[in-house]
Amino acid sequence: MSCLKKQKDEMEPAVVSAKKFFHYLLHCLICIYIALILGVLPFYFTDGYYRIGTDKSTFFSQTGVIGARLVIPILTCYLVTAFLVYRQDRKKGVINESVWVSLKRDLSVTDAFAAVYGISLFVSYICSDYKDMALWGADWWFMGLYPQIMLLSAYFLISRFWIPRKEMFFLIFPVSGVVFFLGILNRFGIYPIFMELQNAQFISTIGNINWYCGYLVSVFFGGVFLLWVRFGSRPWQRALLTAYVTVGFGTLVTQGSSSGILTMAVLLLAFFLLSASDESRMLEFWKLLMILSAVCMAVFFVHRVFPGRMTYIETASELLTNTFLPFLLAGAAAVLYMATVWMIRKKRFNERLWRNLSKAVAFGILGAVMLFILLICINTLLPGSIGPLSNMDAFTFSPQWGSNRGATWRAGIMCFAEQGLLHKLVGIGPDCMPAYLYRDGSPELLAMVSERFGTLELTNAHNEWLTTLVNMGIVGFVGYAGMFVTGIFRYIRQRESNYIAAAAGFCLLAYTVNNMFSFQQAMNTSTIFVIFGMGEAYIRAYMRKSVRFPE
Questions:
Q1: Is 34 helix (H, G, I), strand (E, B) or coil?
Q2: What is the CA radius of gyration of the chain?
Q3: Would the pLDDT of 104 be above 90?
Q4: Alpha helices for 257-400 (secondary structure H)
Q5: What is the mean pLDDT of the chain?
Q6: pTM here?
Q7: By the 8 A CB rule, do 508 and 528 touch?
Q8: Which helix (H) or strand (E) element contains residue 208?
Q9: Helical (H) or strand (E) element with 509
Q10: What is the spatial distance between Cα 406 and Cα 385, in angstroms, rounded to a whole number?
């Protein structure tokens, strides 16, 4: 009897060791996945810009499939050993709660919304009339059931089994820094890497301008946040972050997508609001504005020295880089910086005043946006009723409004409106908007799309949340939007104690703002879900105090 008891006691630590071993194996595989998505995917292509979107989608999908084949058996072994350890601890009285209570306690509100979205994916697929497309998704985009499961799996696996190391998160910056630098050179007609089909609509090693902008904002503002909070105790770290932010602003104001400029405006407003109650943060904010202004002024002089060299420019870029606006912005930022320094030295920095000022700015901008929307509604319903503004395209909601966003948003709204109750709730299937549109869409819908886009196939509404509403229904939309909104707020709230999680939060915010005018694709969405999982892992580590903070 004593011999059996001795064997049992020897087996218990062996099970614990086995659990740790399988956890470590999962961590190693996850690190490889993170390195492939953050470090390799941005540079991956096979034949220049020819089918570069499909190349990146294929790389992402194959990485996920191979990863699943390796992870599933190891994850199964881990879960078995974890259950055995749980039973032993339960018998010893170390744990008194049931496994379901333990799992529920381990879930965050973001996890809960992610679970809702995951369940909705399967329900939407089962109820879809377009299962051929729903499985992998529409050609060129490939955001169907399998890719979405890979995205969610990456979030849960990274958040649970990745052991947080800031070096892995920082892989984002040297990789994207090279991508950004190539983007700046490409925009001025310089191609260090020869790319087939190179033209103004494609940029760097990412591809289409919209793809590039989606990737750019999804990683860049994590670096902006770290510079804003003065991350890094050594001067060379600060210098590298400053160089990264400078290059990032340079490509952001020249890349050619207006949604990127709008995203920058929203994120800078967020930084201003968060700076109001902290004098050191306010100083860093004015520095950010001065860096942005210096970059815009540099491009302004390039325009003067090499006129016409820039291969693509739209209204927002023209305003920032080819007018005297950046000089005014630089002057204002420099004056406010010096005024803030003076107030700090004289101990006259009034936090309450700055908070009230920041609120006034926020409400003023919100009021301006609401007035803009109101004027659009009035002029669209009653053409010519707002005076000289009536002749400006921006004040008439038409199919061509916002680079055809008027047509794409209307198409998305019509696709959703034409569904029955079931498909309004669960959607028409993952990535199936084009299937419904071209197979079963109403004559009015088809006529509108054909008139605006001709032979080009419209695959999404160019608004991620609207597209999700169409594809996944109300339930899927709530899960997806809830996941991002709660993640953004939870992560950014960590900005004073958990820098990596907060940086991830700003990446999520930038991705979300940009995708109000854009769409999911293999490059930006795979990247943001990795960042999402890393942010959640840091939140969990902070709660356990298993890494040194702030980090």
A1: helix
A2: 25
A3: no
A4: 258-275, 279-305, 315-321, 325-345, 351-381
A5: 92
A6: 0.94
A7: yes
A8: strand 207-208
A9: helix 499-514
A10: 20
